[in-house]
Design a protein that fits this description.
- The chain is α+β, with helices and mostly antiparallel strands.
- It folds into two domains: about 5-180, Jelly Rolls (Sandwich); about 200-270, Proline Oxidase, Chain: A,  Domain 2.
- It has helices at about 15-25, 75-85, 200-210, 220-230, 235-250, 255-270, and strands at about 5-10, 35, 40-45, 65, 90-95, 100-105, 115-125, 130-135, 135-140, 145-150, 155-160, 165-170.
- The strands form two sheets. The chain has a seven-stranded antiparallel β-sheet, with no helix packed on it. A five-stranded antiparallel β-sheet has the order 2-6-11-8-9, covered by helices on one side.
- Strand 8 and strand 9 (about 135-140) form a beta hairpin.
- The protein is globular, with a radius of gyration of 19 Å.
- The chain binds (2S)-piperidine-2-carboxylic acid (YCP) and cobalt (II) ion.
- Cobalt (II) ion binds near residues 108 and 150.
Length: about 280
């Protein structure tokens, strides 16, 4: 499948703002920080046990239980119950991304033995937030309910001046998209995004030129530059790894070439839990 707009929620701005303010007092977690460039953290609102000590996802098949932070967001709880068929929910999280931040293009569920059906609802965003999937770019707007096919290579970026907060719900593997929302949601109209310009040859050369300055200390920064470029020029998520491998080759450093292969595998092919490759 691919990303799909399923509908939208008419948000009560004041009540939502009160919940978001309350989240300032709640601790967000960095457990998946290795997927991000910049500021990106997560607050688990519902999970398998209801315990805040469980921050990472795993395969389980019981109705998700509220964690302590969910007490701070009464309006969001109400939205979940009103708009979603909550028996099928396995996780609810808030993903918070800061300005000038993005994710490294990746595929999810590789460390699990099943694939959840993942839904996103932007609850705070700006017009310089984007998502990518394969070679496509699109925007999710406030209150829209999106299915995100996280088995495809995808990414998200926030390049405006304010935070991007998404409510993210994982449904039981195999849930049909017609079984996700209730009849309380409104139909939504897809708004196409402007196409990205072709990457000028000079920029492609500059990327290869990064091989000249590549070192262990700046490897992550180079990955961040490439991940951000991929939002600005027409490309596929996989191109980030192609660019990276090409500039590593240009650097002539065998350990960098090897590391580039390992991270491509970790983010897009296969990974064990808690085995982030280290240079
Ligand atoms: C997950 N995977 O599938 C996480 C979210 C990126 C890595 C963040 O829950
Ligand atoms: Co993802």
């Amino acid at each position: 499948m691919s990303a799909q707009l399923l509908g939208k929620i008419d948000l009560d701005k004041d009540r939502l703002a009160a919940d978001i303010r309350a989240l300032d007092t709640v601790e967000f977690s960095q457990v998946y920080a290795d997927f991000a460039c910049g500021r990106w953290d997560i607050c688990v609102l519902r999970n398998a046990t209801g315990s805040s000590t469980e921050q990472k996802i795993r395969t389980h098949d019981a109705k998700a239980l509220p964690t302590p932070p969910s007490k701070h967001v009464p309006y969001i709880n109400e939205l979940i119950e009103r708009c979603f068929r909550s028996d099928g929910i396995r996780y609810v999280r808030i993903m918070r991304m800061g300005p000038n931040s993005c994710l490294i293009p990746h595929q999810d569920y590789l460390e699990l033995n099943d694939e959840y059906v993942r839904i996103h609802v932007p609850i705070e965003t700006n017009d310089r937030c984007w998502n990518t999937e394969d070679d496509k770019i699109y925007q999710m707007r406030m209150g829209e309910i999106w299915f995100l096919d996280a088995t495809r290579i995808h990414s998200a970026g926030c390049f405006g001046e304010t935070d991007r907060l998404h409510l993210m719900l994982d449904f039981q593997p195999g849930t049909r998209l017609s079984e996700v929302v209730t009849d309380q949601v409104q139909p939504a109209e897809l708004r196409p995004s402007d196409p990205r310009p072709e990457m000028p040859r000079k920029i492609a050369e500059a990327i290869d030129g990064l091989g000249m300055v590549l070192s262990k200390e700046n490897f992550r920064d180079v990955v961040a530059i490439l991940s951000k470029f991929h939002f600005h020029y027409r490309s596929h998520g996989k191109d980030v790894y192609r660019w990276l491998s090409s500039l590593c080759e240009k650097s002539g450093q065998a350990d960098m070439i090897q590391y580039a292969k390992e991270i491509e595998k970790y983010y897009t092919l296969s990974r064990q839990p808690d085995t982030v490759p280290r240079i």
